[in-house]
Write a sequence for this structure.
């Protein structure tokens, strides 16, 4: 882990680390492409099928691998060199995007192909997400971890601003193929940087235990540690009921606000505007593990703002609410990520972050299917009210549990003792 000796403002101090700087810049380019593909894929499915249910089903297929294989991915991240594992997953994502781009460009794309490639994306992303999160602390160290998470969040959401806007413009002028091709090409700088950085993310010394025993150890530690259990459960509730942008926003844009692809892209951009503002606020805020209230308040505001979307009838109030949702969403997710990474022991980080991947992205199939099914049966307004109401009730219930229990002096549990496998 190498550092630059130059002085940087406090909000940018993670950039002192050479590997993090390189990785951050390459990821920024790649994530612009990812958001472009996300917007183009949603619009493509609606054009192919005109079905909210099938749009939700694609989201389900894209995130189901996280539900099934997150535990295995986390154990692999703790067993294998993280840099090489990320190279492999990014290479698969590059090939997936390239094939989808070719199918669209040559006019051979069918719904089943989009669905199948969404499943391939999900498998690669299941390996990639917990490995990248666990790799972050090895590039910057624990002292700069919170700042690195904030800067990563800012990068992610700067891409959320640029990607949908560019996708909307490209789709309106040249169709959907250029958006998919841009995403494929955006993986090349990431792969180049991954071969150049010096941090390998080597695993801790291997034990003779089986993979299943290591998975059990990670799950047991998370369940026995109150703050980790609360954080993961809250992320679960918010992910299922409130983080369904890829279904809610295109349906809201098309069926309520009567927008075309350009308008949809701009609405997605407003989410990114709010999220970047939240990431900037985090980068210059007090560091250290955030208190529980710093997770609960943004989650509750997110739920209320989502519910208010059901009442909008024009673009401006919808955009304002999406800015608030983006701001609160990044405060919540960065806070939950920091809580986990600053609590868990180093040798369990991959496994615990795989649990985070599971409850953040792995349960998205249920949320996507719920929102898509309700929208098809009762309309998008009813769907938004039901899902947001469930999210607010779940967060309030978790807060009542947390405040009502006897926490004692420690917020972390001792490591569970594993017998021989």
């Amino acid at each position: 882990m190498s550092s630059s000796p130059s002085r940087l403002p406090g909000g940018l101090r993670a950039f002192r680390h050479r590997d993090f700087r390189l990785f951050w810049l390459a990821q920024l380019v790649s994530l612009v492409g990812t958001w472009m593909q996300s917007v183009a894929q949603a619009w493509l499915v609606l054009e192919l099928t005109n079905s909210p249910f099938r749009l939700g089903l694609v989201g389900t297929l894209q995130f189901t691998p996280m539900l099934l294989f997150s535990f295995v991915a986390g154990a692999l991240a703790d067993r294998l060199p993280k840099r090489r594992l990320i190279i492999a997953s990014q290479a698969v994502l590059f090939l997936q995007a390239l094939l989808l781009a070719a199918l669209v460009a040559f006019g051979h794309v069918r719904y089943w192909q989009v669905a199948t490639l969404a499943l391939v994306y999900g498998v690669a992303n299941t390996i990639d997400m917990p490995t990248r999160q666990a790799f972050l602390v090895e590039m910057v160290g624990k002292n700069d971890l919170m700042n690195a998470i904030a800067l990563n969040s800012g990068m992610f959401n700067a891409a959320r601003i640029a990607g949908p806007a560019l996708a909307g413009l490209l789709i309106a002028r040249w169709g959907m193929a250029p958006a998919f091709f841009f995403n494929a090409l955006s993986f090349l700088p990431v792969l180049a940087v991954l071969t150049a950085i010096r941090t390998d993310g080597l695993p801790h010394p291997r034990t003779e235990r089986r993979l299943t025993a290591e998975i059990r150890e990670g799950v047991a530690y998370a369940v026995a540690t109150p703050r980790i259990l609360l954080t993961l459960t809250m992320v679960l509730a918010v992910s299922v009921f409130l983080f369904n942008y890829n279904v809610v926003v295109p349906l809201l844009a098309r069926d309520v606000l009567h927008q075309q692809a350009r308008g949809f892209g701009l609405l997605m951009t407003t989410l990114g505007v709010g999220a970047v503002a939240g990431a900037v606020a985090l980068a210059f805020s007090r560091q250290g593990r955030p208190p529980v209230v710093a997770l609960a308040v943004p989650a509750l505001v997110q739920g209320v703002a989502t519910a208010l979307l059901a009442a909008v009838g024009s673009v401006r109030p919808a955009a304002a609410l999406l800015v608030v949702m983006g701001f609160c969403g990044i405060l919540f997710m960065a806070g939950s990520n920091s809580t986990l990474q600053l609590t868990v022991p180093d040798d369990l980080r991959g496994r615990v972050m795989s649990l985070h991947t599971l409850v953040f992205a792995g349960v998205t199939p249920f949320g996507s299917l719920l929102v898509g099914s309700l929208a098809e049966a009762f309309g998008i307004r009813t769907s938004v009210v039901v899902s947001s109401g469930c999210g607010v009730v779940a967060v309030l219930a978790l807060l009542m549990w947390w405040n009502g229990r006897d926490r004692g002096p420690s917020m972390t549990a001792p490591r569970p003792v594993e017998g021989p496998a």
Q: What stands out?
A: The longest helix spans residues 18-49.
